[in-house]
């Protein structure tokens, strides 16, 4: 893995499958993980927001890492979410993830207590010092209540194991400034910013929507890397209706992803209602059909 993209480009924030009775379903997790990698995901982020980490036990988190590692083999990156509001617990989860076979750690800003920036910085440094794994910081102030300010990011970038950021801060200017001044790999955590962040030097994305359309999202980055910026913009536009329904319709991304995958959520989350499911399925089918039409059109044009 390159220093610029330590976990690859296209990462899926993977769901945690459950049975109808609410038990962890490791068989489905293995199948889903293998499918995502086969469809173009460079890595999988487990036990994050989409993975319903607030409602899974420490033992379940470790079991999921081991199962996915077994399913995908040593090649794809397996990044484990270990963030909690408690520094001591986060360190414990980091060490557990390392022992279970994770390649990296996703560490969210401590939430609810709203610590000041010096405390946020100290928290991340404690976790980064706890294992030998590279760390992806998770900046999502809309959920945690606390921003990782750009100046804090600049200081944290000096740590040799803090190598990446999952960026949900909705501050493209701030992110671009940190990208310009550090070697931190910035991964978009908001689908609507996948292409804009990539265009200013981002490393890729960590996507909930990739649970259902991994190939279509990766195609946007492939087109951009090939120098076809107009094609990348066109493909990106095709993904927006589904992304909006899945992440900005008032339902959590976990709920919408599982609605399309036919999986079960844990309380306090509730499944999507029939109207929402129908809308999601329609947008999904439109994206698949449109993507096929674009591919057909490009293929036909190349033969003329």
From TrEMBL:
Positions with a binding annotation for pyruvate: 50, 206
Name the principal localization, coarsely classed.
cytoplasm
- The broad enzyme category this protein falls into is lyase
Kindly list the residues the record flags as site (Part of a proton relay during catalysis): 49, 112
Molecular function (GO) terms for this protein are: 4-hydroxy-tetrahydrodipicolinate synthase activity
Annotated InterPro entries: Aldolase_TIM, DapA, DapA-like, Schiff_base-form_aldolases_AS, Schiff_base-form_aldolases_CS
Task: Name a Pfam family for this protein.
Answer: DHDPS
Show the catalytic activity. L-aspartate 4-semialdehyde + pyruvate = (2S,4S)-4-hydroxy-2,3,4,5-tetrahydrodipicolinate + H2O + H(+)
Question: From the record, what ranges are coiled-coil?
Answer: none
Give its localization: Cytoplasm
Q: Write down the PANTHER family for this protein, in alphabetical order.
A: 4-HYDROXY-2-OXOGLUTARATE ALDOLASE, MITOCHONDRIAL (PTHR12128:SF66), DIHYDRODIPICOLINATE SYNTHASE (PTHR12128)
Q: How does it assemble?
A: Homotetramer; dimer of dimers.
Q: What is this protein called?
A: 4-hydroxy-tetrahydrodipicolinate synthase
Q: Which gene encodes it?
A: dapA
């Amino acid at each position: 893995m390159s220093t610029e993209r330590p976990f690859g480009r296209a990462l899926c924030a993977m769901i945690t499958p459950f049975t109808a009775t609410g038990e962890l379903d490791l068989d489905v997790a293995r199948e889903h993980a293998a499918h995502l990698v086969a469809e173009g995901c460079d890595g999988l982020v487990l036990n994050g927001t989409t993975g319903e980490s607030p409602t899974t036990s420490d033992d379940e988190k470790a079991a999921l890492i081991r199962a996915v590692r077994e399913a995908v083999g040593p090649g794809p990156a397996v990044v484990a979410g270990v963030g909690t509001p408690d520094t001591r617990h986060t360190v414990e989860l980091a060490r557990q993830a390392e022992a279970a076979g994770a390649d990296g750690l996703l560490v969210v800003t401590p939430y609810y207590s709203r610590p000041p920036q010096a405390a946020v910085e100290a928290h991340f440094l404690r976790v980064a010092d706890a294992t030998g794994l590279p760390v992806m910081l998770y900046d999502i102030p809309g959920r945690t209540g606390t921003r990782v300010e750009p100046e804090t990011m600049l200081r944290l970038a000096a740590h040799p194991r803090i190598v990446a950021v999952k960026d949900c801060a909705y501050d493209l200017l701030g992110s671009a400034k940190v990208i310009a001044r550090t070697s931190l790999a910035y991964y978009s955590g908001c689908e609507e910013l996948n292409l804009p962040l990539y265009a200013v030097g981002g490393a890729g994305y960590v996507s909930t929507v990739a649970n259902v359309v991994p190939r279509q999202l990766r195609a946007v980055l492939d087109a951009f890397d090939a120098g076809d910026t107009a094609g990348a913009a066109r493909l990106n536009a095709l993904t927006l209706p589904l992304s909006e329904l899945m992440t900005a319709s008032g339902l959590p991304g976990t709920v919408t992803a599982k609605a399309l995958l036919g999986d079960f959520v844990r309380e306090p989350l509730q499944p999507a209602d029939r109207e929402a499911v129908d809308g999601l399925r329609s947008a999904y089918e439109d994206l698949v059909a449109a993507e096929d039409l674009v591919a057909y059109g490009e293929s036909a044009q190349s033969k003329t």
